[in-house]
Design goal:
mainly beta, seven-stranded mixed β-sheet
């Protein structure tokens, strides 16, 4: 069993930055961030393999978001820069026991955090 606790969401102006943190307990193969817009299904934003650090980014965040991990703290971060009007959503941390960064594409994970809200507004 893996427990995930997110933090770092909030309100930011367009062009601003936020860093999301996901503190994990237990072991996993892949971990990452998904987001959910109102009325839409969750979509993978960025994911990372726990062993080799291989990463995935959805096209709309490439060059703006960076996923990283601190293995000593068992924590994964999502640095979000140049936030845009299309980024506001509930962001979820998710982890999977079998798959690596591909969980972002597959849209599946064994474990989910409670979500943190990101709002972009001037």
């Amino acid at each position: 069993q893996v427990q995930l606790v997110e933090s770092g969401g909030g309100l930011v102006q367009p062009g601003g930055s936020l860093r999301l943190s996901c503190s994990a307990s237990g072991s996993y193969t892949g971990i990452g961030w998904f987001r959910q817009f109102p009325g839409k299904e969750r979509q993978g934003v960025s994911c990372i393999g726990s062993r080799d650090g291989s990463t995935y980014y959805t096209e709309s965040v490439k060059g703006r978001f960076t996923i990283s991990r601190d293995n000593a703290k068992n924590t994964v971060y999502l640095q979000m820069n140049n936030l845009k009007a299309e980024d506001p959503a509930v962001y979820y941390c998710a982890a999977d026991s079998l798959f690596r960064e591909g969980i972002c594409v597959m849209g599946r994970a064994d474990y989910w955090g409670q979500g943190t809200l990101v709002t972009v507004s001037s």
